[in-house]
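Annotators were shown the component list below and the corresponding predicted structure, then asked to write short factual statements about the assembly.
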Amino acid sequence: MSEQSQSYEPGHHPDLPAPISTRGFIGWARHNLFATIPNTILTVGAVLFLLWFIPPIIDWAFINADWSGDTRDACSREGACWVFIKVWFRQLMYGRYPVDEIWRINLAYFIAVTAGVLLFVPGLRGKRWIGLFLLVGFPIVAFYLFVGGSFGLVNVETPLWGGLFLTLVISAVGIAASLPIGVVLALGRRSSMPIVRALSIGFIELWRGVPLITVLFMASVMFPLFLPEGMNFDKLIRALLGVMFFSSAYMAEVIRGGLQALPKGQFEAAQALGLSFWKMMGLVILPQALKMVIPGIVNTFIGLFKDTTLVLIIGLFDFLGMIQLAGTNPNWLGFAIEGYVFAAFGFWIFCFSMSRYSQHLEKKLHTGH
Amino acid sequence: MAVDQLAPATRPPLFYDPRVRAIFFQVLVLGIVLLGGAYLVSNTLANLARQGIASGFGFLDTTAGFSISMSLIEYSEESSYGRVFLVGLLNTLLVSGIGIVFATILGFLIGVARLSQNWIVSKIAAAYIEILRNIPLLLQLFFWYFAVLRALPGTRNSIELFGLFYINNRGLSSPSPIFEPGFSTIVIAFGIAVVAVFMLARWARKRQERTGEQFPTFWAGLGVIVGLPLLAAIITGFPLSWDVPKLKGFNFVGGIVLIPEFVSLALALSLYTASFIAEIVRAGIMSVSHGQTEAAFALGLQRGPTLRLVIIPQALRVIIPPLTSQYLNLTKNSSLAAAIAYPDIVLVFAGTVLMQTGQAVEIIAITMGCYLVISLLISGFMNWYNQKMALVER
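Structure shown to annotators:
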């Protein structure tokens, strides 16, 4: 009171804090939740919706859920029965891979994760070699570990592979193969040689125009017809071939975007320096073009990772396939929802972290204005 | 003189001539592709001959001998494989079309909600987008089909809505229209109304260009479209009645039944694709700079016309190309029908017919060809629309 009636010399009035209604939580809420009458109605409606929607889910998933025990009798059926997941956990992760050999899968995971983490340690030297190992050495090591059959490791047939392990194998192979094939196809599509260009366009558009399911159908029923008598691939390899064709067509289009975005001067400068075609591509064009489309490549990976679930239609038991199998087990009928929620959570973690990573890269690589 | 001392220009070896090289490489590539193709074809022919599988498209006239749970056209077990193909194709088109409509509506709503000033609404939209688009579609489809729709009560304990719709684990039963004679008058009236509105819109635009006066085209058009058929209906005495489903014994009789496979596929496709469309819509609206809104306000436009005449036309230019690829994805994803036994082209044609005839090459080729044609048609249409909306530069 007294302060307001006081008089000040011009320019000597003390700074007063902003009114309480415009700062802090109240100010924020007035601005963001109750700015206008329709806005207030929206807020109340949304809060009511959340109150109706969220508590039953929490009740079901946590409060009334059953966590301990190892038969279905342990489940009260009032909430989620996580015992189902617990009992089937090994199959969901590794399929029917022999229990005594599971260490081989874990060892491969460990090598991949260690090498991957080392790649992200800032300031570490020799990253080039780690990257090269991941691209070239690791697939050989992993193949040997998974399949076995020599040097004292027992051979494990691919029909025993399954669960999250199979999902990871299919998506990793698809990703690793699609990059080089995609680069070649993208270069072919941008080539000045008409026949090469036409073949590339035909290949890319053929695979991009049809759904993955028909590709997998084709891989499982038509590939055996293509091969000479007596020669046959196993089902997993046929599916992998289908996935490879499919994903490399998508990858080619992403990479073509990067090639098109490069200014023409880069090509002309490289040619003026007297670089040959492959040197120009390898040293000047591709490093820039690929860097530009890394977010797009990661998004393609996410799409491929989600699409690998389709292999269950041709009878391979990936993560989702194992959950379907577990849910139709006569002893465990009626737990489909728990299985789906668990699978959704698993896929969501992978995809969400990849998409966050791609957004982070987009920001980091965005060096323009 | 210095010139004289240079070695006489020699032709570079032929192999270094770019044109010669180009021809050489192309012949090489073409040769490899042709040889590989010929190898595969000869293997295939040998295998087909060995397994005694017929070739050619004669099988399309053979009697199918199996029933299909849902068909838009007349179909019975005596129908031919060609008919099966048509039934499957129509089912694919139906579920894709319905999915596209609902995904677009829902996607636009959620995209706008994501940009809402209301914090809580925007966060709910964000949660929807992040959850739905990071979970595989097949998993969502299984969830809706096995966990939700198959868990509904049986026909006896159906959930009843207004006494007209019944929801149970055999699907959604709803009344079906029965067209009585005289209904064609209403259809004709509707056709006339559509043509009239089209003419009216042209006249209104011309008049506005000439005089600047606006004509309430929307309300007038709505009046004509609703009013004219209504008038025809009153005159002819409402020649339309509804066949309401009734429970008889263990099942519902009458009305139309939407099978649970169809409902869950349409639901999963729309919800999943809507999350992608929402992000596209958000990016499109955000790409229109705020200066455009301010300029429109400065010209004295109200909020509604600003949105309709300034923001949305500009946002659409950014939205349409990625929207097209989402429509294509949705159509291709409708083939997941095979996983829950919705009778689409993949399940009945590339599945059942292939198993019965064994003619893998022809059937897979027809199926893939169909999807290719659908893709080309959708992208052709969207390209035409995009060109219509594109910025006309001087």
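Statements collected:
1. Residues 186 and 253 of chain A are 7 Å apart (CA to CA).
2. Chain A touches chain B through 54 residues (CB under 8 Å).
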